[in-house]
Amino acid sequence: MALVPTWRLRAAFARRLSDMYGTEVPAYTTLLEVAGQINDEVAGRDPDAGRLGSISRVTAERHGAIRVGTPGELRQAAQVFAALGMHPVGFYDLRDGDIGAVPVVSTAFRPTDTDELDRNPFRVFTSLLTASDRRFFDADLESRLTAFLARRRLFPPELLELAEQAEKADGLDEPAAERFLTLAVDAFRLSTEPVDRAWYAELERISAVAADIGGVAATHVNHLTPRVLDIDALYRRMGERGITMIDRIQGPPRWDGPDVLLRQTSFRALAEPRAFREPDGRVTSGALRVRFGEVEARGIALTRAGRARYDALTAETDRRMAEHPDADRGQSARALWQRDFPRTEHQLAVERQAFFTYHPVPDRPRDGHHPPADLAGLLTGGWLTARPIVYEDFLPRSAAGIFHSNLTGEGTRDARRTGTRYDAHRLSAAIDRPVLDPFALYAAQQDRSLRQALGTLGADAA
Ligand code: OOG
Ligand code: NI
Question: Where along the sequence do coiled-coil regions lie (predicted)?
């Protein structure tokens, strides 16, 4: 029987998750409608709209977010995502950000090959509760949390077996694929199990995220995020449709230079009905407000140097905002960017601030010249063209902001204590799979294209 290949499993999973989320969170459906309209409008008026991804890719594109409690749960999630061709990329430590700290470390599962990204770029930002971090949890609470988490099962054994099989064979036959998809989507549905009121409230005093992860018996999609080509227009239009967004768009400012990295904004979902178990054993109905909607616009991936410049500009914007709290953040940031950030893609390329793939110009007229050795010369002399590489990852500060702006309480954190050390290596060891470095992935793609392009130019000139 023919196999349903990995990418089709991924595309089907993303679509079914999106359909499920739409029935669970109605405002998400509004968001998809508005994002779709805006993408059509931009595609209709801007001949360059497909420069950072074809309209069909962008329209289908989503990222999701989930949160798990233990390294063992993360390892199982990694197995499910491996079946979908999604690998852990990047390490994000959200525990001591300058925007409210959250007791999690995170990675993102996503396709890494360009062909796979083109077929379907679905990614899931996945956070792991750090129960051993003494800034948040004392030893007693840690041990009760660990015991609670050890009793629950997020992924049924049948799902994990099918996932292993799919990873090994790069797909599943039709009936197995159907079963796998059903079980996988179910694993991320909001659970109807009663929530232990006292336990949930105890964790919520520490952090609403800790309660959302460790206070319930299952995990769930926390949000799903479509991609939009004009996020400023979307922000306004959602307001007109009566959905209040958070107070700003996170990430780089709107400006007239190239779009880089990632801009995101979100809205809080409505409270959802949930069953509670009271201390006296009665089951009552209540509500929790834990899920939300988010939307994003993606730009060009920055090199480490470009990223350092971006981070410095963000820090400088913060400093100015602290001095002039009433100033408009977007305007302050824009002024700084106009002074200090490369204004064109060409400049980003020749200053090695952003990643591009390079391609020989096939019909360059023969003028007796030989291709120069430097990238700037090759680009201005019309030998090579540069195509931007899209940023496929996340920004820790925006992530912390998204977590934070959607939480109810401030939570508590004891800054006098030290946290547990966590890094990409430790996360890799916990899940027994390498957590990949996003910069290395972009650089490899760029270098491959440049080598090929120079090879072609050399052969033509010889
Ligand atoms: C994840 C928040 C981070 C993003 O887009 O930066 C995120 C979460 O709320 O679990 O999804
Ligand atoms: Ni998100």
Answer: none
Do residues 374 and 414 share a domain? no
Q: What are phi and psi of 221, to 5 degrees?
A: -65, 130
Same domain, 416 and 330: no
- Helix count and strand count (H, E) for the chain: 18, 14
Two tokens, residue 408: 């109810």
* Among candidate residues 79, 89, 86, 125, the one with its CA nearest the CA of residue 104: 125
- CB count in 10 Å sphere of residue 365: 6
Ligand 1 pocket (Cβ < 6 Å) reads 65, 67, 125, 127, 222, 264, 294, 394, 398-399, 402-403
Q: What amino acid is encoded at 172 in this protein?
A: L
Residue 244, domain member (yes or no): no
Q: What is the DSSP letter of 250?
A: B
Quick one: which atom of ligand 1 is closest to the CA of 66?
Answer: 10
Domain that holds residue 52: 3-224+392-431
Q: Which atom of ligand 1 is found nearest the CA of 292?
A: 9
Pocket test for ligand 1, best of 290, 294, 393 (most atoms within 8 A of CB): 294
- A 10 A CB-CB count for 455 gives 11
Show pLDDT as tens, one digit a residue, over the chain (462 residues).
789 999 999 999 999 999 999 988 888 888 999 999 999 999 999 888 888 988 888 988 999 999 999 999 999 999 999 999 999 999 999 887 666 688 999 999 999 999 999 999 999 999 999 999 898 999 999 999 999 999 999 999 999 999 999 999 999 999 999 999 999 999 999 988 999 999 999 999 988 899 999 999 999 999 999 999 999 999 999 888 888 887 789 999 999 999 999 999 988 767 888 999 999 999 999 988 888 889 999 999 999 999 999 999 999 999 999 999 999 999 999 999 999 999 999 999 999 999 999 999 988 877 778 888 899 999 999 999 999 999 999 998 888 877 776 666 556 666 666 667 788 999 999 999 999 999 999 999 999 999 999 998 877 765
The complex's ipTM works out to 0.99
Shared domain for 353 and 414, answered yes or no, is: no
pTM of the full predicted structure?
A: 0.95
Total tally of structural domains belonging to the chain: 2
* CATH code of 30's domain: 3.10.180.80
